[in-house]
Amino acid sequence: MAKDYTVVIEQDEEGYFIAEVPELKGCHTQAKSLDVLMERIKEAIQLCLEVYGRKYPTTHLVGVQKVAV
Fold first, then answer.
1. What pTM does this model have?
2. Distance CA 24, CA 54 (A)
3. Residue 39 or 56, more confident
């Protein structure tokens, strides 16, 4: 059975898209297009889970908030 993961996507100043899975510490990747990024983040999630198995250090995304300073 498939498990859903939250993926946070940002774009840097050079135009690269960066994806991170907050639940899986250290699970991230980047690509020049969103289509390629989604393929790569799926691969990254699978690899992270293979390496750590059920003992993967997980967290839960609470939310995203803008802060004015």
1. 0.81
2. 11
3. 39
At 24, give phi and psi (nearest 5°): -115, 100
pLDDT single digits (tens) 13-25:
999 999 999 888 8
Could you give the number of structural domains in the chain? 1
Q: How far is residue 24's CA from residue 45's CA, in Å, rounded to a whole number? A: 8
Closest residue by Cα to residue 63 from 12, 14, 6, 15: 6
Q: Residue 57 is part of which domain span?
A: 1-69
> What is the helix (H) or strand (E) element at residue 8, kind and residue range?
strand 8-11
CATH of the domain at 45: 3.30.160.250
